[in-house]
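Form 7-S
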Amino acid sequence: MDGFIDVIIYVSSFLAMLSILVFVHEWGHFIVARMNGIRVDVFSIGFGPEIWGRTDKKGTRWKVSYVPLGGYVKFFGDASEASTPGDSLDKMSEEEKKVSFHHKKLYQRAAVVFAGPFANFIFAILILATFFYAYGQVDTPAVVSSVVEGSAAEEAGLQAGDVIVAVDGSEIKRFNDVRIEVLYSAGESMNVDVLRGGEIVNLILTPRLTKIVRDGEPVLDDDGKPLELYQIGVQNAEKTVIREHNLTSALWAGVLETRVIVVQSLRGIRQMIVGTRSVKELSGPIGIAKIAGESAKRGIDFWIRVMALVSISLGMINLFPIPMLDGGHLLFYGFEAVLGRKLSERTQEYGFRIGLVFILGLMMLATFNDILKFNW
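Output:
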């Protein structure tokens, strides 16, 4: 019975999170399209046959569809949900061309496409800023209180009392910044600047994959396997400070936090490409559903925080220059700007096919990873 309830929690919390983020993403496309005089035929949450829908005064069909794994906005002149140009573009009247997406200027089409991922980033920033404004931001000085004997930190020359001020050129403001840098290092050597006796000392430090032990017993992950994380072997005993924010500083802190998440995520992707991080770490719908479910169990505030992280990921992934994604459309617009003309419909069609195969392959790999990692 408990397992059945867990499934209900995982599925419902995942679909609720995904539906909200898809709505935010598509709303970005929709609102900028309306601002540029483009007619929107369909605004759909989900794919496939319609469950519920209504048509507004401007002719847009708002609907919820049976397959709740995404959504789309279909503009006037589109042949499909992927915004591929229709066959009747040349046969449109002058009045129809005025509201057709594909007849708009290049910068207008680019703005509409970019608005979807941008909306996801703004949504995440607002969530983070709200939490920072309401609860403050945890701030612990990046001071090394002690160094574990035989650790990577000791080998590199770190000493108690050192203040870590930068890692690989990135400024360190709090001890948690150090944790993040270490976790995302994938064992790569890091260039660490520390403040010691009023002078900056440069050290080369290589984190080690370490089994986490608590009270003499190994810590297990959600799948019952020994938990291993990259560590350097330093401890911090400084008192945690809750830094309060006003509205302006909270928004700026949300922007900075979003920037850190994007940079570290891109770093992880680069490590997968070059082979220093395993592609087994990729997660698909099952993995995200598990994360959504676990966060929902911990409370609505934790679930909302996780939604901010997923929103950032959604915005970032959609900007990758892969046909079928928003970044793929922007790539085509880049070629159009350079060539002074649109790419041929045949070229775009082949691009979308290649993009579709790539995305499906990536989804299959991520789902396979989820199946292997999930504690069935």
